[in-house]
Write a structure and sequence with these properties.
Structural class: alpha/beta
Largest sheet: 6 strands, parallel
Strand order of the largest sheet: 3-2-1-4-5-6
Distance between the termini: 71 Å
Radius of gyration: 20 Å
Number of helices: 11
Strand content: 5-15%
């Protein structure tokens, strides 16, 4: 009995050590001990070619000059709905990376799992504006039709026992692409997360990503200048003045409910389908 008690105490101490380490990485405002324990205990869904397609990536990577480092951009969020600036910022981040000498060989856009998005909308008493992952995924597909290098990453919509944080989703994508590159005899690619400065400030992304050894490109928003810019960190880029307009998905929902035009806010096909999905057709 004493041995069992000691083993349980050591297991608990090990969990505490891991939690303490996580607390150094995850910002205190976002850190929750019980959620972290659940996070470690439960596996995520597997990634496949169906969830994370590689057709465009394979072609571009095979054509990448040997003297350039191949990069894949990654953007995620609720994206309810995906708007024009979401996509425009990926195009701007691509141009910025290539000015720095990298070759962008692909990009992925992901919408967060319903475990997170539904809860967020319920807490904000906005469930009438909620759309499930399948609907948001459809809107992303429409938004990316004119951007051949971008693909939907549907992995976060797979049945998950827990919500996967944005940085963990990026790490999962990076590990998956490493394995795919190794299996197919290709060079490995660097995955760079593209985030707005408002999220970067809230979650201290510059510090977090440095400790997690993840790369990022931060797009400054007009109303949220970056509070902690990187200090000569080549793995964290800042794209100043990236937003031509301070659009938000909430703005698109409000315009729709008010019966106003979504021109200049959503891709026309996204706007049409968005109206249909929320029952505001016409």
């Amino acid at each position: 009995m004493a041995a069992v008690t000691a083993a349980r105490a050591e297991a608990r101490a090990a969990m505490m050590r891991r939690a303490t380490k996580a607390a150094e990485i995850i910002p205190p405002r976002a850190y929750d001990f019980e959620r972290h324990l659940a996070y470690e205990a439960q596996p995520t869904a597997p990634r496949t070619d169906a969830t994370t397609p590689k057709d465009a990536l394979a072609r571009a990577l095979d054509a990448c000059p040997p003297d350039q480092e191949p990069v894949v951009l990654y953007a995620c969020g609720s994206l309810l709905p995906i708007h024009l600036e979401h996509v425009a910022n990926l195009e701007r981040a691509k141009a910025h990376a290539e000015r720095r000498g990298f070759r962008v060989v692909g990009g992925y856009v992901a919408t967060s799992n319903d475990l997170y998005v539904r809860r967020k909308y319920a807490e904000q008493k906005r469930l009438r504006d909620f759309l499930p992952h399948a609907a948001r995924r459809e809107l992303i597909g429409l938004a990316l039709e004119d951007h051949g290098w971008l693909r939907l990453d549907a992995w976060d919509g797979e049945p998950q026992k827990r919500f996967v944080e944005f940085w963990a989703a990026q790490a999962s994508l990076a590990a998956h692409l490493d394995a795919w590159c190794d299996a197919t005899g290709r060079r490995r690619v660097a995955v760079v997360g593209v985030h707005g400065s408002d999220l970067a400030n809230k979650c201290r992304i510059v510090d977090m990503f440095r400790r997690l050894r993840l790369r990022c490109c931060i797009v400054e928003r007009p109303n949220a200048p970056l509070e902690r810019p990187p200090d000569g960190d080549s793995d964290c880029w800042v794209l100043p003045g990236g937003l031509s307009r301070n659009l938000s998905s909430t703005d698109a929902q409000r315009l729709l409910r008010e019966g106003r035009s979504l021109d200049g806010t959503l891709h026309p096909n996204v706007a049409r389908r968005f109206r249909e999905l929320l029952g505001e057709g016409g």
